[in-house]
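Bug report

Summary: structure tokens for MFS transporter differ between web form and batch submission.
Environment: batch mode, default settings.
Steps: 1) Submit the sequence below via batch. 2) Compare with the web form result.

Sequence submitted:
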Amino acid sequence: MSESSSLQHKPPYGMIAVLFIGAFVAILNETLLNVALPSIMEEFEVNATAVQWLSTGYMLINGILIPASAFLIQRFTNRNLLIIAMTLFTAGTLLASLAPTFGILLGARMIQASGSAIMMPLLMNVMLTAFPVEKRGAAMGTFGLVMIVAPALGPTTSGWIIEHYSWRMLFDIVLPISALTLIFAIFKAKNVTPQRAIKLDVISIILSSLGFGGLLYGFSSAGDKGWDSPYVYGTIIIGVISLISFTLRQLRMDDPMLEFRIFKYPMFALSSAISIVIAIAMFSAMILMPIYVQTIRGISPMESGLLMLPGALVMGVMSPITGKLFDKYGARTLAVIGLTITIVTTYYFSKIDMHTSYANLVWLYTFRMFGMSMVMMPVMTNGLNQLAMKDNPHGTAMNNTLQQVSGAIGSALLITVMNNRTESEATKLAADAMANMDPSAAQPSAQAAAEIQQQIINEAMLHGINFTFFISTLIATVALILAFFIKRVEPHHVDSAKENVAVDPAKVATE
């Protein structure tokens, strides 16, 4: 069956709806627990390093399994994969809700992650298979609602729940939704994606796990342990060596686990580069805003989450609209406008001070999210459109993996920039305070000295946050420059019987 003919049937909206709900709760669950970590530390009497593994471990499992999703999607039916993914996620959620010890809770999170890691690539691949190219923009725009809104809603939702209920309620709310999704998948899900009889290369799995897992762990730990920690540079070195070995092995294989040759297509390679840069820039607000709002300004976690809620809602509303605009105008126009808005608002974030009003922060953050809503999915969809259907699993797996890795790297780099700038500014402010002190004046009381010290710390941290937002502005500018090279893709259709016929990728991209 040819690629074009496979798209003539009516899209399986029921199957897509099940995948949407499953992916939404899976991604929501990734950020849902962050606000609850202090409560979990108190109940199980564990330190911050241990409890952070509830988030780090979840991300690591995603980083290990997502690259393997290309193999899974090609080898097994989408129905069976969906049922397995939702079974794992539901079982993990139930176990987490009842967990009597921290070890069991951590294990439950790992089980959850093993299910959620399959959901995103599976959903993207089903949508690429189910919709013709001229309608993919609107479809993927709706998909963007899941990818962007779910993690943004996590902190707000969990902040309200933690204020009123136990942290276990976070899992109790997700459990019935995931269970109903599983039941619906068992009875209603249909097969959409084609299968191929390919074999799993165990060495590739090991190298992929060490490569992506090492990079994710190393960069994620850098902000906490410091770059001079052997746990950090050791795992990064292992990750880099394993990833190079994994890549070389894939390029030598006729049927690779993850196809790196898709980067020969210029628009896919460009979309991947832009997505990496955007992911790094996007993490600046996600990391820096809670620090500024809660630590420096003393605003409650609940109000901090509410500050980001309008931005999440705007992205949710804009995602389907952006998808339709993409179908009409292409990715370049949307990306240039969206990145311009993102750059301007990020620059204004580098100018916030101790007296910036809550309302101004809400508006600034909301407009920034509005800009980003016009970039992510159009750029990604334009790149995926250049791939043949047989390469869709590899394209979706590669995109999701690169976002995970670039997010971890971006977080580590931005935290490092902020900490270094904060330390240097604190030293400078302390020296200035000492120089301006009158030697003949009475020494300040212990309380007054503590207040002065706290003021210096807050001012230094604010300076570090401002500088990091400025660096993020420069990073986003790189994405804007790259966006001018985007060309609208005229996809090729490859017959499944002729999948190995060479296609000149340079001829696929047209103005």
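Above is the batch result. After comparison, the two runs are identical; trailing whitespace caused the diff. The chain has three domains: 1-199, 201-256, 262-432+447-511. The CA atoms of residues 22 and 181 lie 6 Å apart.
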